[in-house]
Amino acid sequence: MRIAMIGTGYVGLVSGACLADFGHHVTCVDNDAAKIEALRGGAIPIFEPGLDVLVASNAKAGRLSFTTDLPAAVGEADAVFIAVGTPSRRGDGHADLSYVYAAAREIAGALRDFTVVITKSTVPVGTGDEVERLILEANPAADIVVASNPEFLREGAAIRDFKFPDRIVVGTDDERARKLIGEIYRPLSLNQGPLMFTGRRTAELIKYAANAFLATKITFINEIADLAEKVGADVQEVARGIGMDNRIGPKFLHAGPGFGGSCFPKDTRAILKIAQDHDVPLRIIEAVLAVNDTRKRAMARKVSNALGGSLRGKTVALLGLTFKPDTDDMREAPSIPLVTGLKDMGAQVRAYDPAGMEQARQELPDIDYCDDPYSCAQDADALVIVTEWVQFRALDLAKLKDVLRQPVVVDLRNIYRPEQMAAHGFIYESIGRGT
Ligand code: UGA
């Protein structure tokens, strides 16, 4: 099978490399010549565990290549994936589809034989119809089917998610396309990955509904955490207790500083816009977004409370800046409103992150960056664990207490146990543990 992958961002690069690893011939296309040149030289523009090795081995085997020449890649492809970005449009929260439509127009002129064009980017319901219309408008003789195949990869676990998916959703009613896409994913049936065939619009909605549901689950447990703090309960145990009910499930019930990243905030905003356009109020999702925004901003107050209510003249050390571990991604990270809040309240802020400091410097230029957790904590009045990197789970607590000016730890990810921290003499605040 010959595949063209348009867009070498996060989704395109991971999907392209994994499909090549299945044995397909994949050509990744991007109009950013410098990026393609770098990829050819083996440089991976994103931080994703295992991706460098996967790209290198498949490139070496001749199954994975990189080009700026879209017509050449599309012309020889059986399937063309559109995996370009769909950022939030400035001002109105709608997904910006200009890259998707530009790709569709370019693809149209390069098509030869029967080709399945597959949207992998997260796109509003009805985008597949428009992609099909644009292609046929530009090239009325084109023999194509446009299908939707949304991705459900998590940053930091993307390769595992691709190779061991809970499901693969394929939206098209066309039998030729179903057969071809089934063939593309055939290696996954060995891993018991179930293929779900459905209509194109349904597939597009599944993607948004999945992310909105997960964002809701997180926000739900975050609010329960606030209640647990007040009533003297432990949210971790509550999550375990409800999660053992199969109808609820144990995942995505980890209370924290609010969700961030490139997907949940953008996609919840986008589904709300789609719903507004169709006059369907989605009040639960509206509330999820509002609660999450408020929560992220409230984290600075939590730190200030741990230090007696004032941050003036205090130094606060942050461990972890990225929106979650195993990524360098700072998009909508809870650390951003946290830093703003801390500085507004008069604190000096310094930080350490294992992989995100370069990106963080652009978002947060006015804080001090440190080389490791202990130099970060040196003479600080409080240490705040913002992202649950594995490196922070087994800190030398005695050393930490030694270097801190005040033994105050605010753990926004609940990676330590209150008894353990108390035994080491810390004043320890975490999320939703009022016991
Ligand atoms: C998310 C989805 O999990 C993927 O299935 C989806 O494909 C992807 O968006 C996408 O649409 O592309 P991702 O944003 O990489 O993946 O990261 P998650 O692991 O889902 O975490 C998102 C945010 O939720 C993070 O800020 C994380 O800290 C937070 N979170 C997650 C919690 O606060 N509690 C939890 O229990 C889980």
Automatic annotation (TrEMBL):
NAD(+) binds at residues 30, 35, 86, 122, 155, 266, 331. The active site is at 263 (nucleophile). InterPro entries: 6-PGluconate_DH-like_C_sf, NAD(P)-bd_dom_sf, UDP-Glc/GDP-Man, UDP-Glc/GDP-Man_DH_C, UDP-Glc/GDP-Man_DH_C_sf, UDP-Glc/GDP-Man_DH_dimer, UDP-Glc/GDP-Man_DH_N, UDPglc_DH_bac. This is UDP-glucose 6-dehydrogenase. PROSITE patterns: PROKAR_LIPOPROTEIN. It comes from Rhodopseudomonas faecalis. The keyword Cell membrane does not apply. The keyword Oxidoreductase applies. Residues 317-418 form the UDP-glucose/GDP-mannose dehydrogenase C-terminal domain.
